[in-house]
Design brief:
- This protein has 94 residues and is α+β, with helices and mostly antiparallel strands.
- Helix content is 39%, strand content 29%.
- The protein is built from 3 helices and 5 strands; from the N terminus they run H-H-E-E-E-E-E-H.
- The chain has a 3-stranded antiparallel sheet with strand order 1-2-5. It has a two-stranded antiparallel sheet with strand order 3-4.
- Helix 1 packs across helix 2.
- It is elongated and about 55 Å long.
- The two termini are 19 Å apart.
């Protein structure tokens, strides 16, 4: 059985346009607005109902290893953006 490929942006836009009776330009504008809104609000958390939430997480400093040399290195603390799936999304996939 062949493995299904992820949808491209063009394929996603086409499917959303078909499902919503909007034209492709309108769908692209909505998607771009959603992404822009997510970026602007990521620091305080951004939720897409039924899909999940973007959250900013503080990672602690830790010791790591350089894979090329095997030398131990200190990895500094940093902030990372994570996406937490909603329970409904997990249930829909499983």
């Amino acid at each position: 059985m062949a493995k299904a490929k992820a949808l491209t942006k063009a394929q996603t836009v086409a499917k959303l346009a078909e499902a919503t009776d909007l034209n492709k330009k309108q769908v692209v504008a909505v998607l771009d607005s959603l992404v822009d809104l997510a970026y602007k609000n990521a620091k305080v958390g951004f939720t897409v109902p039924g899909l999940g939430k973007l959250v900013l997480v503080q990672r602690k400093a830790r010791m790591g290893r350089n894979p090329a040399t095997g030398e131990s290195i200190k990895i500094p603390a940093k902030k990372v953006l994570k996406f937490r799936l909603a329970k409904a999304a997990k249930d829909a996939v499983n």
